[in-house]
Design a protein that fits this description.
By secondary structure, this protein is mainly beta. It contains five helices and 29 strands. It has helices at residues 2-34, 38-41, 150-156, 229-235, 282-285, and strands at residues 45-48, 55-59, 62-64, 73-77, 80-84, 91-97, 103-109, 127-129, 132-139, 144-149, 161-166, 175-179, 182-187, 191-193, 196-198, 201-206, 212-217, 223-225, 238-242, 248-253, 258-263, 269-273, 293-301, 305-314, 329-334, 339-345, 353-356, 361-365, 372-376. It is globular, with a radius of gyration of 25 Å.
Length: 382
């Protein structure tokens, strides 16, 4: 009898061991399913932003009166206020004097001639070549790279391109000049099929030969598969800026509460993310709905700070006749990814901002009224 009890007891214990083991395996499966996919997709470390030490500042903007036609995406250098708009009738850019408010003129002709284009990018970067201020423009349809000499264009009263180079017909987003014969070019996400899209990355390229010198992958996977590739493309969208000393690039992510900082010398990228935000496992769960939240939208920088406009809520209804919410938060990071300040502005700063380092002003243009105003950063004691 005692032997029979021992056998039954052993059988019962074996069953408990089996059930316990099965339960642990199931938990492990769920844990793996719920585990963040950051390390699977992202090509660098992700560090969570510490909000506890940030300083919140309520700041007041100053208006600028301009008599010219100001609209679209902006760039500013000292007294020059430059507007890019695809709906300008014959040119892509209009330049206005900030001090006098008077219009200087329209530049960069539209057309199909040897010095014209059917489309060019807005200004991503202004840099000096000798005593002249310049920028690079990419004409996709014509496969041309224009070096626009802004200073000489204003002086001569007509568009002056220092060089026009034939470039292969690839999708380029941001173009950042580093040094003689070197460009850093963002290759954005591209739809390969209905269910597959590439991941964005950077290239260092020769300006003269168009040769790729080095790749800078932001993600480990060259492409991602999901039910709707167009949604994947949207999830990877960033607005980027290069540090003026051309050593780092910052990316502000629209659909993740995260900025990425790419070190050009080492090739390493680090993501700095708000706590309790979505991670890259979201790329596998999106199906029939567009990303709901809009986080960072535009970014500017100097050698000390990164200024990123932030919303952090659901996307508003963006169409004519619908009043936009007050988008008035700017996060200020250092180049190590530390969140130093949160600026709360009295008027919207969101879609198009530009940091003029000559006067140390952060400009914007109201997308509803085309009113121009700025923050005097020298007065903020950052």
């Amino acid at each position: 009898m005692n032997g029979l009890c021992a056998i039954l007891n052993l059988a019962f214990m074996d069953r408990k061991i089996i059930y316990s083991t099965f339960f642990i395996v199931i938990l492990g499966v769920f844990a793996c399913c719920n585990k963040s996919k950051d390390g699977y997709y992202f090509n660098g470390d992700i560090r969570y932003i510490d909000n506890s030490s940030k300083i919140v500042k309520n700041v007041t903007s100053k208006s600028v009166h301009l008599d010219g036609i100001q609209s679209g995406m902006i760039a500013v250098y000292d007294s020059l206020f430059i507007c890019w708009h695809p709906n300008f009738p014959n040119h892509f850019f209009n330049i206005i004097n900030l001090d006098s408010g008077k219009e200087i003129g329209f530049f960069c002709e539209k057309g199909q001639g040897s010095h014209e284009a059917t489309s060019v990018n807005c200004i991503y970067q202004i840099f000096k070549k000798g005593n002249d201020i310049c920028t690079y423009l990419w004409a996709y349809n014509e496969s041309r790279l224009f070096l626009w000499n802004i200073s000489q264009s204003i002086e001569q009263g007509t568009t002056v391109y220092d060089t026009i180079i034939s470039y292969d017909k690839n999708r380029y987003f941001f173009l950042f000049y580093q040094a003689e014969d070197r460009l850093f070019i963002n290759r954005p996400s591209d739809i390969l099929s209905r269910e597959e899209a590439t991941t964005p990355y950077y290239e260092k390229r020769s300006i003269v030969t168009n040769a790729v010198i080095q790749d800078y992958p932001i993600y480990k996977k060259k492409s991602v598969i999901n039910r709707d590739a167009s949604m994947l493309e949207s999830f990877f969208y960033t607005w980027d800026v290069i540090k003026p000393d051309a050593t780092k690039i910052a990316q502000a992510m629209r659909h993740f509460p995260q900025i990425n900082i790419l070190d050009i010398h080492t090739g390493k990228v680090v993501g700095f993310r708000m706590k309790n935000g979505p991670d890259f496992s979201l790329l596998e769960s999106i199906t029939d709905v567009n990303p709901k939240n809009n986080y960072y939208n535009c970014v500017q920088a100097d050698d000390h700070f990164i200024y990123a406009t932030y919303w952090g809520k659901e996307q508003w209804i963006d169409r004519v006749g619908v009043e936009m919410p007050l988008l008035n938060t700017i996060h200020v990071f250092d180049w190590n990814g530390k969140l130093l300040y949160e600026l709360i502005t009295d008027r919207p700063f969101f879609r198009s901002i530009w940091l003029d380092q000559i006067r140390n002003r952060l400009y914007t243009i109201d997308i509803n009224t085309d009113e121009v105003y700025y923050l005097d950063l020298s007065m903020l004691n950052l």
